[in-house]
Amino acid sequence: MKQPPVIVVQLIHILGPMKGEIQEFVDPVITIGRHPSCHLRFPADLTTISRKHAEIIREGNQFKLVDHSTNGTYVNGKRITETYLKNGDVLTFAEEGGPKVSFLTQVKEMPAEMPEIKVAPPPPPPPPPPPPRREGRPEPLPRTPEVKPRYTPPDIPRQEEIFVQPVKANLVIQYGPTLRSFKQLPITIGKNPRCDFKIEHPAVLDQHAQIFFTQGQYWIKDLTGKGLLRINRQPVSIQAPLKLNDDLSLSPEGPAFRFIGEGRLVEAMEPSIETPPRTPSSGKEESPPEKPGDKPSPKSSSFFKKIFNF
């Protein structure tokens, strides 16, 4: 039997002492400030933040932000006393230039707890009977010549390019201070001003990559013709699906992103050289395809640089 769904509040730090961290909460009231009891606790020397600065209160399926501070709390640049939050709102604590977070929510279905069933180990098999004793010296068995199997290299299937069609699907990309959302795919990424998402980076070409949605999944296509794209540090030949928590690099020199589900792509730190590569994405995957709006698992993570959202 399924338990009621749990709504997880995700606060992604865009600016401030915890920049790049992502915190997740399921509490009915989330307190924010410098006091040690606060859920979101800022350093004690950050005196622009009040000890009990603000709180986020769950009311049914809505979340209300209430300000208790001296220097104010802002939502999307507007000072508030209290207001209901929606996905993608940017919260600023104290004056402009203070700590800034992005507000997101996720719904997770909690599986029913199954009772633990202890199964007794099977009894050990009986010992084999002793071989019959033979009189005299046994004759040696004839040796069969060893036949070494011939090595046949596996057939590597040639990946065919997927025909891309326009489709309505949500996509959010965060890179540095830029946060862009799209309602229709495909979109192009590159240095050219005509690209849907322009990135100024020495390793990014004019027409660098394309993100599209097909077969129930988000995909990325390499438009460079040089195989610059990497997913989990493995090159992308033509295109590849984006799976939850995939690390995407537009080139070996960056910039780097992480796909955190629901069509959300956030800037991430480049993985260190010592880090072993994770299994690359492929055109065929055993996990069920992601649909627009699929929910990622609510694990705390603090390896992103910044974030965006719908």
Structure description:
The strands form four sheets. Strands 13-12-23-22-21-18-19 form a seven-stranded mixed sheet, with no helix packed on it. A six-stranded antiparallel sheet has the order 2-1-11-10-7-8, with no helix packed on it. A five-stranded mixed sheet has the order 4-3-5-6-9, with no helix packed on it. Among the domains are: 103 residues, Tumour Suppressor Smad4, CATH 2.60.200; 101 residues, Tumour Suppressor Smad4, CATH 2.60.200. The radius of gyration is 27 Å and the shape is extended. The protein starts with 5 loop residues before the first strand and ends in a 43-residue tail after the last strand. The protein is 0% helix and 35% strand. It is mostly beta strands and 310 residues long.
Question: What is the topology?
Answer:
Layout: E1 6-15, E2 22-25, E3 29-33, E4 40-41, E5 54-59, E6 62-67, E7 73-75, E8 78-80, E9 82-85, E10 90-93, E11 100-108, E12 167-175, E13 178-185, E14 187-190, E15 197-198, E16 209-214, E17 217-222, E18 230-231, E19 234-235, E20 239-241, E21 246-249, E22 256-259, E23 264-267
Parallel strand pairs: 3-4, 12-23, 14-15
Antiparallel strand pairs: 1-2, 1-11, 3-5, 5-6, 6-9, 7-8, 7-10, 10-11, 12-13, 14-16, 16-17, 17-20, 18-19, 18-21, 21-22, 22-23
Short descriptors:
about 300 residues, mainly beta, Tumour Suppressor Smad4, 6-stranded antiparallel beta sheet, 23 strands, about 35% strand, extended
